[in-house]
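hey so i finally got around to running the thing on that chain from the lab meeting. sorry it took forever, my laptop kept dying and i had to restart like 3 times. anyway pasting the input first so we r on the same page abt which one it is
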Amino acid sequence: MARRFVFCILVLFIWARGFESSSPPALSASPTPAATASRFSSFGEALAEANRLSETNEGKHYDSEFGTAIQATHPQLADVVHECAKGSKLPILFDVVFIFSADGRVESTLETPDQSAALCVADKLRNLRLPAPPHPGWPVQLHIELNPANDAMKKRSGPNPATSKDMQLTMQASKAKLAGNYEEALRLYAQAIKLNGHFAPFVYQNRGMLYFNRAKESTDRQARIADLQKAIADFKKSIALGAASDDELNRGLEKMATKVNLEEATKLLTQETGQ
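ok and heres what got predicted. didnt touch it at all, straight out
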């Protein structure tokens, strides 16, 4: 099942469609180079490619970066969606495919046809900046659902991340990470972890990604090994906390990028240490 980032106005959060699966997605081979924006002749073609890539290991990692960037730059995404959907008849359902250039900037967007709200959301999120994608012209799907009647989803979602102290600290840490200030980001993650809040699995997941990315960027073997060990510990903690939670969003962590990240970090550590 392809993954997509889903936004439900009652949840005020972004999560992966992989949560719907009853088992973790299988590991897939590395993707072939993604088509550039000019080769997408239609919204449907871009959406299909975004779904295909989201099933690959590289796609899962970049989906995680996309979610982090959304949290850091637009933590009140509900306000953006409400503003764009003003005057529209509910329920509202649409998709935006963001095409990222080689430097991680939004190169272009494609939206569900005949949806003014989709165009509006795409325009307001054009300032997203991510790390360089696996290939230029990389598509990522954002799925928007605005349905106030979805009370069942509200009951499953738990506390609102926008008002959760640990999630606020995680968003601040994500901003520091995007700015390259890893030490400040780690300080903020440590504060969030001390709270032992509802979103602790996500805090560990995000901090693990920081260690993981820093390890891959490092030219110092000992520092690389140390960061990989810390990343593995955080990914394991994230999955364990999620599995013990009665919240579907937290339990879904094992089914999204966290497990894939854990497996890749473990593989890299084995390569580094020979053990």
